[in-house]
Amino acid sequence: MMARLFLIPILLLSLFNPAFFEEIVAAKDQKYTLNNGASIPMVGFGTWQIQGADLIKQVLDDALAAGYRLIDSATLYGNEADIGKALKELLPKHNLSRKDIFITSKLSPADHGEKAYQALESSLKNLDSGYIDLYLIHWPASFALNASDPKNAELRDESWKQLVKGVKNGLTKSIGVSNYNVRHLKELLKNDHGIKPVVNQVEWHPNYHQNELLELCKKENILLQAYSSLGGTGNKNLLENAEIKKIADKLGKSPAQVLLRWSLQQNIAIIPKARSAKYIKQNIDLDFIIPNEDMEILNNFNQAKYIVNPNKKYIWNPDTVA
């Protein structure tokens, strides 16, 4: 009789919150099998605006200790060499080897076209990692052209062709894209030169989520990977939002953790960045479930606008790119 009484509140909870019985896999252990068979961590450590050998070593030390196994860099970040040097020192400290780490870097928009292969070689030399796990086209336009110039399509096609060569020659295991909208992605899929993109890394948070793009990526088995998951550098609209704070308080988590979990719960990979050990650890402590009703609240935040660098020439709005 007592056992039956004990089960009643659990059954009632499951009726009102179907997520109650969902299996929670530790965020640091969540992986996704890419369309080429490679495995990628769902939570990575972003390094945009993190520069300097000492700082890089400090944050990577903290990140590896917290359980991060994906490090996201780019030619534009100017930190590939420092990341490579730091990993050589830190991997033995954490009883890890190269195969335990997933390294992502990206093609600079200044290197579109035939220069892409040489740029990939340069990134690999800087990282000094034997190979790169994932190399992305960072932006669908060239710095040498106006975004609206139709020649951008020709250049990114040639860039992709060069990266395909990079895969075949062992420089990188996988290739993908970043900041591609639906049109750019469909264009690439029509002529992928024999290798399909495995990832599309885009801005994604409750104030800006592209559902049509997500559906296309799911259909084509392309992993959507989110950057600016907290709303963008310097933008605290989401972190200070009353509704998000209410959800966070209810779950005993921070607003940042709720925002990161919101993406992860939709099978969208994330690459949060932080400098302090506290937030580095907090950003991967996502082993909880957001109830369906709260997910719906977050889903309805969409304001359909880009907020990354809105006042600069390099505005990260792919809809402006021909």
From TrEMBL:
Gene Ontology molecular function: oxidoreductase activity, acting on the CH-OH group of donors, NAD or NADP as acceptor
Keyword Transmembrane helix annotated: no
Recorded coiled-coil stretches: none
Xref: Pfam families: Aldo_ket_red (PF00248)
Transmembrane domains' residue ranges: none
Site keyed Lowers pKa of active site Tyr: positions: 106
Signal peptide: 1-21
Stated family: Belongs to the aldo/keto reductase family.
Protein name, as recorded: NADP-dependent oxidoreductase domain-containing protein
